[in-house]
Write a structure and sequence with these properties.
This protein is an alpha+beta fold. It has one domain: Cyclic Phosphodiesterase, Chain: A, CATH 3.90.1140.10. About 30% of the residues lie in helices and about 35% in strands. The strands form two sheets. It has a five-stranded antiparallel β-sheet with strand order 2-6-5-4-7, sandwiched between helices. Strands 3-1-8-9 form a four-stranded antiparallel β-sheet, with helices on one face. Helix 2 packs antiparallel against helix 3. It starts with a strand and ends with a strand. InterPro entries: Cyclic_Pdiesterase, RNA_CPDase. It is an enzyme of class 3 (hydrolase).
């Protein structure tokens, strides 16, 4: 099974992401938009592992969120990987209770390391992928300003009340996401 752990974006926030993507599509028609039902903030990508690992992953998530109450993050800006000027991925960065996101992520990472599972050592930036581009795409200063303008309007905070363990299932060159477990924050 192909596992990942993420904060799912609640349905009540998806209309705002649809509006962001509509604006992106107007500015960059060739962008491949992330399907709304796949919008999430990844905390850890585990990859292809044996199905038996699911129970241990759920335990890691439980211990990682044990004393963390529900919290909010707010979409704040658009950026890109590897960078905004030559993006292969466009994403929305968040502000707000980032300390809780980082705390949960580090605790999950520690749990994965205790199972001797490889973890991503790159600097973690909490983000929500909204589009992908071919690797030849360039963002000039004019387009960068227009991307900044998309995020000028007030966007509602996203209430995070659970962490989910997902299975990513390949299907016709794409992936569907199946929720394996949802661990509530109290």
């Amino acid at each position: 099974m192909r596992f990942f752990i993420a904060l799912e974006i609640p349905k009540e926030n998806l209309a705002e992401f649809q509006a962001i993507q509509d604006s992106l599509h107007t500015l960059i028609p060739q962008a491949k938009l992330t399907a709304l039902d796949k919008i999430h903030l990844t905390l850890a990508f585990i990859g292809e592992k044996q199905e038996e690992l699911e129970t241990k992953l759920v335990q890691i998530i439980h211990s990682s969120v044990e004393k963390i109450p529900p919290f909010e993050v707010t979409p704040a800006y658009i950026d890109g990987f590897p960078n905004i000027h030559h993006p292969e991925v466009l994403w929305v960065g968040v502000k707000g209770d980032i300390d809780k996101v980082l705390l949960i992520r580090e605790s999950i990472k520690d749990g994965l390391e205790s199972l001797r599972l490889p973890t991503d050592e790159r600097r973690f930036v909490p983000h929500i992928t909204v589009a992908k581009l071919n690797n030849n795409f360039r963002v000039d200063r004019n387009l960068e300003v227009k991307l900044e303008e998309i995020m000028v309007t007030q966007i509602e905070p996203i209430r995070i009340s659970s962490i989910k363990l997902f299975q990513s299932i390949p299907q016709n060159g794409l992936h569907t996401h199946n929720t394996l477990a949802e661990i509530k924050l109290f």
